[in-house]
Amino acid sequence: MTQLKQWQHADAAHHLHPFTNQAEINKTGTRVISHAEGAYIYEADGHKLLDGMSGLWCCNLGYTQPKINQAIAEQLQELPYYNTFFQCTHPRATELAEAISQRAPAHMNRVFYTNSGSEANDSAIRMIHRYWDALGQPQRKAIIARDNAYHGSTIGGASLGGMAFMHKQFTPLENIHHIAQPYWYGANADISPDEFGLQAAQELEKKIQELGENNVAAFFAEPIQGAGGVIIPPQSYWPEIQRICDQYSILLVVDEVIFGFGRTGHWFASECYGLTPDFIVFAKAVTNGFQPLGGLLISDRVSKALLSHTDDLAHGFTYSGHPVACAAALATLDILSDGYIDKVRIELSQAMEDYWLALGEHPLVGEARCKGFVGALELVKDKSSRKRFDKNGKAGALCRDASLQSGLVMRATGDTMIIAPPFILDRSDVKDLTEKAWQALDITL
Ligand code: PLP
């Protein structure tokens, strides 16, 4: 048996995969990714792929970053583990909290650490309850989120999320309510994107009024829905959401697990949309995906309320602020600070507009869209009527496989193809990526 077959055999026998149809891979064999370099990953059989998804939206600086590796190795020598519980800290957790705060919107100056984005969203729910308790309004427990959102896979994260297929597999938490996503193309609306965006935002106000404004604690949203298909809101959407949150004193939680640390060409997408969140949820790219780390950036007004409690905060994780993960994050922030944020905002955003949007000309593509260094293609049966394929997901799966054949990792969510490539690409790489995507669309057709 070849080494590859041995891995596949052991995998089928012993490994339960997340977000995978296990019955299907047991028939076809798992794809084994054995090594990576720069923006490329390699399958164990040698097949080379341009990673258009930066892993799972996390290796934004690609796979070869010796400075991060060195920081990890040095930290393992110096202090491989200590916790941040019970009045303790360690240098890296402290330095990183300061470094993140310095890059955050000016009113956000405190960080709570978790290991992942899901835990960070769960933690946000806990902090929100504590905030309203501090303000003497403990009845404010209702949370509003959006259809088709992804906020993680813990019970809290998945309850906040709005994906019906996930909710079917467990019993979501009570008192989390969902409003529509600002998905102009998908709604096939006959009004302008801005009118549509305004109406979508005003659903929040209607929901607050329905639940009773003194019962609503917070609104959770991704700045751009990522896993839901890169749903870029119309320009009118976020200012109206901010107005509504301000008017009703609802806490605004912006889940930047995908967009934080540069994806829109700003440190945080909240800046790009002019938002003043109470929490920014982060994870993934903070360590370039090299170590698990997530957390919450907390606004000064929320910090003040949280610190007004005189009892212990009864919440935390053994690995909150793990020193090795914090060391990886500090090195990542250092590298990102060396021109990458500007590169995304100026060079790569322009390359996406020039090359990626041109994929909209392909007969299979109903809409090509991009923002910063993220993009999506909507596959349709008929462009002019925006008619979808009968079985949602079939064309997407075919295109994903065709893309692998063409040497590119694109992700399919239903019949929407998405990409979020590493910032180490340049304009000519984006052209190359787009040519591979076109080839994949041709094969799919
Ligand atoms: N929030 C968003 C917006 C995400 O995209 C994800 C993961 O993709 C999460 C939360 C969950 O993060 P994690 O997988 O680190 O728990």
From TrEMBL:
<dbReference type="InterPro" id="IPR015422">
    <property type="entry name" value="PyrdxlP-dep_Trfase_small"/>
</dbReference>
<dbReference type="GO" id="GO:0008483">
    <property type="term" value="F:transaminase activity"/>
</dbReference>
<dbReference type="InterPro" id="IPR015424">
    <property type="entry name" value="PyrdxlP-dep_Trfase"/>
</dbReference>
<comment type="similarity">
    <text>Belongs to the class-III pyridoxal-phosphate-dependent aminotransferase family.</text>
</comment>
<keyword id="KW-0808">Transferase</keyword>
<dbReference type="InterPro" id="IPR015421">
    <property type="entry name" value="PyrdxlP-dep_Trfase_major"/>
</dbReference>
<keyword id="KW-0663">Pyridoxal phosphate</keyword>
<dbReference type="InterPro" id="IPR049704">
    <property type="entry name" value="Aminotrans_3_PPA_site"/>
</dbReference>
<dbReference type="Pfam" id="PF00202">
    <property type="entry name" value="Aminotran_3"/>
</dbReference>
<dbReference type="InterPro" id="IPR005814">
    <property type="entry name" value="Aminotrans_3"/>
</dbReference>
<protein>
    <submittedName>
        <fullName>Aspartate aminotransferase family protein</fullName>
    </submittedName>
</protein>
<keyword id="KW-0032">Aminotransferase</keyword>
